[in-house]
UniProtKB/TrEMBL annotation, chains A, B:
Family to which this protein belongs: Belongs to the homoserine dehydrogenase family.
UniProt: NADPH binding residues: K126
Binding, L-homoserine: E211
Gene3D superfamilies per the UniProt record, alphabetical: 3.30.70.260, Dihydrodipicolinate Reductase, domain 2, NAD(P)-binding Rossmann-like Domain
UniProt keywords, alphabetically: Amino-acid biosynthesis, Methionine biosynthesis, NADP, Oxidoreductase, Sodium, Threonine biosynthesis
GO annotation terms (biological process): methionine biosynthetic process; threonine biosynthetic process
The protein, known as: Homoserine dehydrogenase
Record: residues binding NADP(+): L32, G33, C34, G35, T36, V37, G38, T39
Length: 454, 454
């Protein structure tokens, strides 16, 4: 086995083509916002202008960067002459507007103004898309321009294009993803170092992985916006932020995580969108949720650590796919933005358009009775004969069957029961958990987590 | 923690758009080849015609399926009236031709004929692309049509579109992938069950995972074609099959695998394409190779088992991305084909084109002196004082330094030395391995593997 094996036999190829210079004026790119991502986008657009021009087939230039205060201190690499506070002028004179402001008010107004002025828009703004997506799509459609947003979900991970384009000929059954790096980091620290939530959160804030106000991350709202976007694309159905059943990680305890580990699993905050059967007629519906779940160690998402993101897509024909990479940060997010910039400018240069909104399936939202899950319920119970029978009875009465029970004596006449159910519908599981609260011998319902299969 | 958390506050969305019927005639799709993949493509195109039409914005129909023998027995779901042996007629009357014949002679002729007749082409034919890619691109360009080939690399895994489009604004540094399921299955069986290569191959053949003539898989040629395609896309440079340094797995022994495991690693057949510095001026070059390497257990590709494929792409801005999924099989490959079918037909319906060949960087091929690697060399040596000194001396004389040495006494006056080097250039490593063959006290060079870092 030699370290430099011989090349294979090949065939001669003609000379590489030399791209003919395009005499048309450069395409104009306006950047709205100049934070971590904006700075990287400007840097990469400037450094790689020649290569990008070759890929687009036409030159491009940054016409300006919208900031709140031109005088504020910022990265010295940023050309000062590009900075402006005149949003209206910037937007009115662009082939492409890159929106990196965040928020849903000014950003919405400027994105709509850009589209109406005939510019394509690339945005990383998940909240905007998850609340005003159809309105933006309609404006893009009316103007015949592109609306692209790879960076809005999972940073550099190209799952938006994957679902929107690569899987356009397949039938997606389920999408599940770790799409929020902050909560994944916190859960990781809780898992590997046994920290409590508050301690892990404080540490994440100190390191800059969590915001001073961590609500959007730890309550799951950020992940819910991404879940809505992925669900819309995967199921060709409008799904808005308000359609997402959402639960964050603030109630996850070190004890819950230790119990999951005992059962061979890890706790992860998952965004899940799935196609389910609804009612007796076998009609279809869409269920979208964000919540902490227990993943068995063999699940491909179980090993996704730290600030990484990963999305598993399960389809009829392709089976299980996974997309993995950095979910946040200036440069990774800028990479996703620039992929969209090249796509939008290619359309500008040569015609064609990115896929418009695809909502033809228009599936209804699932009800809890449509959605099937397994649950791990942990209970503090009296350590005396007959209690397990009461618990088993309470579960059975709701049509739910038990897959496994693990009992651990806690002392002081108390035991902790971990009951894992077989698949049952969410409504029945919900009633079961409620019933267990008042079952004879049960002192407290400690926690209830969905359990995924590997 | 409740199993059915409350939906978030959301905003109302306007009614979903109803797609206006398009009065234009259906787009015509011709299928060349009706093996496992072709059968699935026809099935999915037929079953999902309405949904696909909605995504494309215009109806489509399969005009015919090219077969060698209309009377041959085949899947009863396949509409007999579509089967034809008249390739010329099929190709002359299509908006899109899907080439699933394999091979590089008839397939090349028919693809060229299709493109010249003005049809876009979707193909899964890696060998064709890796040997005649530039010729096909030129024909597509001349006719103003698309040439798409997601299914040619890693089956359902959307890495072609990922590199070609999503990363178009980034700078790829390295691509490394497990892109051949047959060899991955064989190495997996050798690893988990301690089988010898011949036994594992025979078993793979029995189960239908390996062909009767397994040469293309086990010698690495199939992976080399995919490496050439990925390298071309990643580095905007023409790379043909003949440019790929290629070594298969036929010389991998159960003993090699056991030794890798002792060092905490696994042996995987990797396709690797990387950008390297060439010469003193810091010019760039491209190195492309296929060979068995030792991966540490923590590497994201180390856990990719069985017939799965995965490709890691390392870029300047995005960092490390991974794409994972089923690399072969009728339905997964058909999923990739159908994604391309939708893209090509959208262009047909609404204008625009897929990216043409991007070869603007035109980097030269690297020489062994440009490429840096670490090597694990195993040697059978005399078990006597001084031999390690001779070995260390021989390695040092070639400017290579040693990272670790592991010695195991084998009995009969013999020991086995496993030497892992630090990074050194391939030319120096090659000379080192040659010198070790004749170093005093060395009886035999057992194996030499590249070792990747996690």
């Amino acid at each position: 086995m030699s370290p430099s094996p011989a090349p294979l036999e090949g065939v001669a190829v003609p000379d590489a083509p030399t791209s003919a210079p395009d005499a048309r004026p450069d395409l104009r790119v306006a950047i709205l916002g100049c934070g971590t991502v904006g700075t990287q986008v400007v840097r990469l657009l400037t450094e790689q202008a020649r290569d990008l021009g070759a890929r687009i087939g036409r030159g491009l230039r940054v016409t300006g960067v919208l900031v709140r205060d031109v005088e504020a201190p910022r990265d010295p690499s940023l050309p000062r002459e590009l900075l402006t506070t005149d949003a209206a002028a910037l937007v009115a004179d662009a082939d492409l507007v890159v929106e990196l402001l965040g928020g849903t008010t000014t950003a919405r107004d400027l994105v709509l103004a850009s589209l109406r002025a005939g510019a394509s828009v690339v945005t990383a703004n998940k909240a905007l898309l998850a609340t005003a997506g159809p309105e933006l799509y309609a404006a893009a459609d009316a103007a015949g321009v592109d609306l692209l947003f790879e960076a809005a979900v999972a940073g550099a991970v190209p799952v938006v294009r994957g679902v929107r384009e690569s899987l356009a000929g397949d039938r997606v059954e389920r999408v599940l993803g770790i799409v929020n790096g902050t909560t994944n980091y916190i859960l990781d620290e809780m898992t590997t170092r046994g920290l409590d939530f508050d301690v892990a959160l404080a540490q994440a804030q100190e390191l800059g992985y969590a915001e001073a106000d961590p609500t959007a991350d730890v309550e799951g709202h950020d992940a819910a916006a991404k879940a809505a976007i992925l669900a819309s694309l995967a199921f060709h159905t409008r799904v808005a932020l308000g359609d997402v059943a959402c639960e964050g990680i603030t109630a996850v305890t070190a004890d819950d995580i230790a119990a999951a580990r005992e059962a061979g699993g890890v706790v992860k905050l998952l965004a899940v969108a799935e196609r389910v059967s609804s009612g007796d007629q076998g009609a279809e519906a869409v269920s979208v949720r964000v919540n902490p779940v227990i993943l068995p160690a063999a699940h491909p998402l179980a090993g996704v650590g730290g600030a990484y993101n990963a999305v598993v897509v399960e389809t009829e024909a392709a089976g299980r796919l996974m997309f993995y990479g950095q979910g946040a940060g200036g440069a990774p997010t800028a990479s996703a933005v620039l992929g969209d910039v090249v796509a939008a400018l290619r359309h500008r240069a040569h015609g064609g358009r990115a896929p418009a909104e695809s909502a033809h399936a228009a599936l209804p939202l699932a009800t809890p009775a449509d959605v099937v899950a397994r649950l791990q319920v942990r209970l503090r119970v009296d350590d005396r004969p007959g209690v397990l029978a009461h618990v088993a009875q309470a579960v059975a009465e709701h049509g739910v069957s038990i897959e496994s029970v693990h009992q651990r004596v806690a002392g002081d006449g108390e035991a902790v029961l971990a009951v894992v159910t077989h698949e049952a519908d969410e409504a029945a599981l919900h009633r079961t958990v409620e019933a267990l609260r008042t079952t004879e011998g049960v002192r407290e319902t400690v926690s209830a987590y969905r359990v995924e299969r590997a």
